[in-house]
Structures are given as C-alpha cells and as structure tokens.
Amino acid sequence: MPQPESDLQDRVERADTESVGAGLDALDTRCQIGRPSCGGRQADRRPRAAPVIAIALMIGIWQALWAAAIWPEYKLPAPSLVWSNIWGLVTPATSWTCLGLGCTGP
Fold first, then answer.
1. What is the DSSP code string of the chain?
2. Which of the residues 41, 53, 61, 98 has an alpha carbon 20 to 30 A from that of 71?
C-alpha cells in the first residue's frame, strides 16, 4: 500500500509547484500592467517627494508664523536667521578639526 502515499505526495508537490508558478506569473503581470517603466524612477517618485514636501511645508508655516509676529523675535526667530547661524557655526576649520578628531582620536 505504499502507492496511495506516493500519489498523495506527488499531488502535493504538483500543487506547490503550480502555486509558486502562479505567484511568479502574478508578479510579472503586475509589472506589465502597472507602469511602463517597471522598477524605474517613475514608480519611486512619490515616496521620495513626500518628505521633501513635508519639510518645505513646515518651513513655510514657520516663516508665516514669524511674519505674523505673534511671538517676540527671541522666541520664534526667522528660518533664514536660524539657517545662517547654523551655517556660521559649521565653518571649514571646525569641520576639519572635528573630522580629524573623530578619525584619529584626541
């Protein structure tokens, strides 16, 4: 009676192979139906733009609140003033000193 057990195993293996083949076919068809350049830049454009748009929106709101002068200048400075101060702190001399100390140690 080893025959039915072998037959069952063959059917299970065949079903597994067919399901894997169907899954691979589904991946191929989704790629063909979706976008003309599957895996290209067109598919990735939206997720990359979302963080940039969010940051620009936050800076725009910050600028609008500063322009409305709701709070004193020392509590809510202008975004350009903050950026210029940060940029002034990161001079080439301090950057190279920090990089050198980070690589070689004190």
1. -HHHHHHHHHHHHHHHHHHHHHHHHHHHHHHHHH-SSTTSHHHHHHHHHHHHHHHHHHHHHHHHHHHHT-S-TTTS--HHHHHHHHHHHS-HHHHHHHHHHHHH--
2. 53
Neighbours of 14 (CB within 10 A): 10
Give domain limits for the chain.
Answer: 1-34, 41-106
CB-based contact 63:81 (threshold 8 Å): no
Which of the residues in the chain have pLDDT under 70?
1-5, 12, 16, 20, 24-46, 92-96, 101-102, 105-106
CA–CA dist 32, 39 (Å, integer): 11
Mean pLDDT of the chain: 74
| 51-67 per-position pLDDT tens digit | 899 999 999 999 999 99
Alpha-carbon distances of 25 from 14, 15, 50, 100, rounded to whole Å: 16, 15, 31, 54
